[in-house]
């Protein structure tokens, strides 16, 4: 196995594992996640948080295992775009500490979107995927 395949697999494990873990945590902490989303004025809060949790759970598992990778990446984009610009709109936050935390989350999500877009450009099948 050459270094490119090894680094690609490691990247898949790290990125997919990150989202898979967070999807599980969203579902385990659904009540507090709903409260946080409600504080930001998210409509249909419980349903929205549950759907968001499923998107990152399934998207993360898909990236990690190579299960329908393009659909998995699209699920993560569908999660990240509204969450990034709605939940982490740091430019709307008055409190300096809250603004800093929102900016950190915003920039992290932008970086994750960049990685996902790069993976989309690779095409499929991915090496060692379960379902290309």
Describe the structure in brief.
This protein has helices at residues 3-28, 30-39, 45-65, 69-87, 96-122. It is an all-alpha fold and 132 residues long.
Secondary structure layout:
Layout: H1 3-28, H2 30-39, H3 45-65, H4 69-87, H5 96-122
Detailed description of the structure:
The structure is a single chain. With 132 residues, the protein is an all-alpha fold. The protein has one domain (9-122). It contains five helices and no strands. Helix 2 (30-39) packs across helix 3 (45-65), helix 3 packs across helix 4 and helix 4 runs antiparallel to helix 5 (96-122). The protein is globular and about 50 Å long.
Beta-strand portion reads: under 5%
Low-pLDDT runs of 5+ residues are none
What would you call the structural class?
mainly alpha
End-to-end C-alpha gap: 19 Å
Reported for the largest beta sheet, the result is: none
Helix content: over 70%
Helix-strand topology string: HHHHH
Question: How would you sum up the global shape?
Answer: globular
Beta-strand segment tally: 0
Rounded average pLDDT: 95
Radius of gyration, in Å, reads: 16 Å
Q: Which descriptors apply to this entry?
A:
5 helices, 78% helix, 132 residues, globular
């Amino acid at each position: 196995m050459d270094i490119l395949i090894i680094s690609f697999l490691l990247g898949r494990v790290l990125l997919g594992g990150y989202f898979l873990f967070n999807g599980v945590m969203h579902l385990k902490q659904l009540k507090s996640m709903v409260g946080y989303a409600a504080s930001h004025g998210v409509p249909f809060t419980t349903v929205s948080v549950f759907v968001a949790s499923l998107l990152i759970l399934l998207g993360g598992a898909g990236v990690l295992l190579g299960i329908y990778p393009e659909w998995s990446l699209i699920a993560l984009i569908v999660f990240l775009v509204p969450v990034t610009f709605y939940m982490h709109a740091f430019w709307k936050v008055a409190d300096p500490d809250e603004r800093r935390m929102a900016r950190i989350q915003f920039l992290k999500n932008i970086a994750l979107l960049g990685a996902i877009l790069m993976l989309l450009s690779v095409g499929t099948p991915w090496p060692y995927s379960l379902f290309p």
